[in-house]
Amino acid sequence: MEMNKEAKHRDILVPQASAPAVPTSLDSLKIPSAVVENLLIKQLAAYPKSDVLTLTRLMGINSHIIEDLIAGLRKKSLVEVFQASTAQFGSDKSNNVRYALSETGMSEADVAFNKDAYLGPCPVSMQDYTQMVEAQDVRAKLVRRDDVSFALQDVLGADRMVSVLGPAINSGRALLLYGDAGTGKTYVATRLLNSLNTSVYIPYSVFAAGNIIKVFTPQHHKRVDENHQSQTILFKEQYDRRWTLCERPSIQVGGELTMDMLEVNHTEHNRVWMAPLQMMANNGIFIIDDLGRQPMPVDTLLNRWIVPMEYFYDYLSLPNGQQISIPFILTIAFSTNLSPEMIADPAFLRRLGYKIQFQPLLEEEYRELWHIMASNKSLVLDEALFDTLLNLHRQHSVGFYPCLPKDLVGISRDIIAFEEVEPVISSAVLERSWEVYFTADGKGGGER
Questions:
Q1: Ranges for the AAA+ ATPase domain (predicted)?
Q2: Do the strands 175-179 and 331-336 form a parallel or antiparallel pair, or are they unpaired?
């Protein structure tokens, strides 16, 4: 039943903004022709003897632009033409024409790769990128109570949070989710986007101040259509292939977050300039988990967001020393086990907008979650189990945290499998699971 509801939800993911039209000329790309030409040279170096249709697919631009670019490269003696000998009389010979770089062209490709290693569809202009991000602002299409209830349908106790989380999502402002470890802060944050039944266009890359910045990554973006693989040549049946339609992004980082990840950067092995995480998360949600466990001081990390949260623009330093401004239109959620007063001063807390405390489950919700987790592992709960369980909670002053049933059931299953006994979680098995899960002082586990 739940799978059907999920499938139905995905079926109604519609673009919030109008699809970007297919550019029909080099000028309509709104990026320097030399950038497009260099990218074509790199494509021909990587995929020698390609035809126009192949180059069209690789570059994400239409064949007329490709043909104009190739004509210019041939005049510079950078490209050689190969005509297949099997062409039949009266056939379309253009389908058999292949292009490859000349020796001079290969030298130009080496120069192009040394300057910029990016290889992919043509970038979009910063102007077009900004306009699209603004058109896809989540605040332009308010979510309803039913939408938020759907997003949290698998979260016990969600009915107590819907009335707070709904306005928070609609506000587009930053959220602070705080509470004890294991109360489900991150679990809930990752499901907030399920309340939004719109999809967004993400560019493969953006050209800014002389640099190509890669934005789309399969790790962070999930496509919802196959426009990039469409074989049609009719413009009205497709949109600009430099963009791809995706679910709203949801990017999560924790203690591994460094300041370099928030700037345009590249790795030693990959010299492609990558967009910072917040740029990849535009029109979606950016979750900073375990606030306080990052290498830099909390104040340093929080101060990084003061200007973007206030003005909805972020300022980035580029590899050539220039600075650019990019739209900062996303929901940023800080999740922490610390109290708000411990992580920021009142001025910063004011900018957060919504501060939502997460509490342990109620007893009846906690019991229900135990039954669900046990059933998922094909285990049965002994009749006396809950008396033992509640006594352990009282004895060690541990709250009814949502992470505990899943973790303790998992350990119990391991014990049962090892001992080769009936698939029943007895009080004895529970006590063994509790002992190895918690430390000697009764503390342990973590947020799930």
A1: 171-362
A2: parallel
